[in-house]
Amino acid sequence: MAIRWKPYLRDESHPIDVGRLQPVEQAWGVRLPELYKQLVCRHQGMAPEPCLFNVGGSEDVFNDLLTITPIEGRESYSVMRVHEVLAPHLPPGIFPFGRTPGGEYLCFDFRNAPDAPRVVLVTSELSILPVANSFHAFLEELHDG
Q1: Could you list the residue range(s) of the whole structural domain that residue 102 is in?
Q2: Burial of 87 (0-12, 13-18, 19+ CB in 10 A)
Q3: 81: CATH
Q4: pLDDT tens-place string over residues 85-127
């Protein structure tokens, strides 16, 4: 199913050059999945449709794609800011890319596969729940209610 990206943090798309991801990759010491880089450069701060994903026997909502370039007054949606807040509470190798309406975070999990991160959900209780074996698989599994 094709994903449509709708405005969420801004009224319109705010594309960036892929070079803006290099400082993120350097700071985190990882190589982000190419598909993610393509999407976030075109759709940072936007909401996917369909947006439902399965986790732990239930469904949750992929609310929005975190931003690479912070938005004034909305810095809490920046991948770097979210990582800064989460990092002291999580094992190394977990990096955020998206948010749910309940304030939980979709993250890349590089711990066991530095070249092919899994997708996990970090809950508000800081539990780490598996979602998909790859970013591509995660996107393929998004569905409507």
Answers
A1: 4-141
A2: middle
A3: 3.40.1580.10
A4: 999 999 999 999 999 999 999 999 999 988 899 999 999 999 9
